[in-house]
Automatic annotation (TrEMBL):
SUPFAM superfamilies: Actin-like ATPase domain (SSF53067). InterPro entries: ATPase_NBD, Hsp_70_fam. The lineage of its organism: Bacteria, Pseudomonadati, Pseudomonadota, Gammaproteobacteria, Lysobacterales. It comes from the Bacteria. It comes from Stenotrophomonas oahuensis. This is Hsp70 family protein. Keywords: ATP-binding, Nucleotide-binding. Transmembrane segments: none annotated.
Length: 451
């Protein structure tokens, strides 16, 4: 059995074609899950404590020191009492040392929680580590240990998908077609694409797949559109996701197999709008543009997908920053609060796509702290991304030399009316077809996997 897998920046999904019909894989009650992983802090069991020669030596040292202090003070303390007190100190020191030692990747991954439950578990436990959008890190310059961790995260996500699909389909799932963007987000140029594909392939094999192949996501969406089109025609497929924006020029519909002529892509998407909205709308509440806190601190706080930047933000000291900014920044450094703030930004972006205003309650930072945001503010925050999208669409228009018969829109961000307008304006003679925002790509991957 072969399935299609959309390993997304924001959400992941899978599907298979059974008897000529696309069958979505269900994860609980949903057909997709948030691509987020929570690693709880795993406490060592104090019952594992035992006296090694080194600890025995430390125990006797503490007993001797306490005995000398007692004699100097004219006290007569029983040897058993001295030993119990010293043993308590040694055990406490041993536990503290155990907690300072890093857990193995295997231990971390065995205790991981995925999807929306990851966020809820992180907020409930108020400790541990949260990894959001691991796909966005695949093409970055990674330390070997970080690469091993990211590969492990991808492995467990893909294994979760494979096992869930196997149970639902009542058949072993051993092969898959994985979607990939035209351009992964990368800090090392074209080499980032090769690295990302290598990590995903390694992770898939480790997850129990015998073999996997890759298909560019706009080409997959074209296959989905082709399956729903009775008449053959020329089309552009525009896939606007959380981390990337991809376009394919294709001949679809009719009885012949679809033909993909060319693909374009940029490593920009909905998360870039989230970042801009967070910086322009939310971070002024923490002093951005007002206090003397360096501007890059606010970028570090807002980029929850970037683990190194999150660590750097938590290491800054804001004790001497003027009120109320200092206290608010210190509160933002508390475990889970950058993730809570990012969730509020996401909610705001989604709400303002169909409503004129939105109110965010930020009482996890400060009592009665709230923010009123307008659709105009979202438009201003999205302007940078819209500019890049417009340039990409203009390049596509120049390359193909005409308007296609239809433009097919898919991807989570294709729900946004302002992005639909930008695409329609670039190809005024084309018919705009709004596809399934969440499942256009994964349905196409399922069709590809079935051939």
């Amino acid at each position: 059995m072969k399935i299609g897998i959309d390993f997304g920046t924001s959400n992941s999904a899978a599907a298979a074609v059974i008897e000529g019909q696309v069958v979505p894989i269900r994860f609980g009650e949903a057909e997709q899950f948030r691509t987020t992983v929570y690693f709880p802090e795993v406490m060592r069991d104090p019952n594992d404590f035992e006296l090694t020669p080194a600890l025995e030596h430390e125990l006797h040292r503490l007993i001797d020191a306490a005995s000398r202090e007692a004699r100097a003070a004219g006290q007569d303390r029983a040897p058993d009492a001295l030993r119990r007190e010293a043993l308590r100190v040694v055990r406490r020191q041993w536990m503290e040392e155990q907690m300072r030692q890093p857990l193995s990747s295997t231990t971390l991954l065995q205790n991981a929680v995925y999807g929306d439950e990851a966020l809820e578990a992180y907020f409930e436990e108020n400790e541990g580590n949260l990894v959001q959008s691991p796909k966005s890190m695949l093409g970055y310059n990674l330390h070997p240990r970080a690469r091993q961790t990211i590969t492990g995260i991808a492995t467990h996500i893909l294994e979760h998908i494979r096992l869930t699909a196997s149970r639902q389909l009542d058949a072993p799932v051993r092969t898959a077609t994985l979607g990939r963007p035209v351009q992964f987000r990368s800090s090392i140029g074209a080499a980032g694409n090769d690295q990302a594909l290598e990590i995903l392939h390694t992770a898939a094999i480790a997850a129990g797949f015998d073999s996997v192949d890759f298909l560019e996501e706009p080409a997959a969406a074209a296959m989905h559109y082709h399956a729903e089109s009775a008449d053959e025609h020329d089309a552009l497929v525009v896939d606007i996701g959380g981390g990337t924006t991809d376009i394919a020029h294709a001949r679809v519909g009719g009885t012949r197999a679809p033909t993909i002529h060319r693909a374009w892509g940029i490593a920009r998407g909905g998360t870039d709008i989230d970042l801009a909205l967070s910086l322009s709308g939310y971070m002024p509440l923490f002093g951005r543009g007002i206090s003397r806190v360096p501007a890059h601190h606010y970028v570090e706080a807002a980029m929850v997908q970037d683990m190194p930047r999150q660590r750097e933000f938590r290491q800054h000291s804001y004790r001497d920053v003027d009120a109320p900014w200092g206290k608010r920044l210190q509160a933002l450094q508390d475990t889970g609060n950058t993730a809570r703030l990012y969730r509020e930004v996401e909610r705001c972006k989604i709400a303002l796509s169909s409503a004129p205003t939105h109110d965010s309650v930020l009482d996890f930072i400060e009592r009665d702290l709230a923010l009123h945001t307008s659709a105009e503010q979202l438009g201003a925050a999205a302007a940078g991304y819209i500019g890049e999208l417009t340039q990409l669409l203009a390049q596509v228009r120049e390359d193909i030399g005409r308007d296609p018969a239809a433009v097919f829109l898919t991807g989570g961000m294709s729900r946004a009316g302002y992005l639909q307008q930008a695409v329609a304006a670039a190809f005024p003679q084309a018919r705009l077809v709004r596809g399934n925002p969440s499942f256009g790509v994964v349905h196409g991957l399922a069709w590809a996997a079935s051939h």
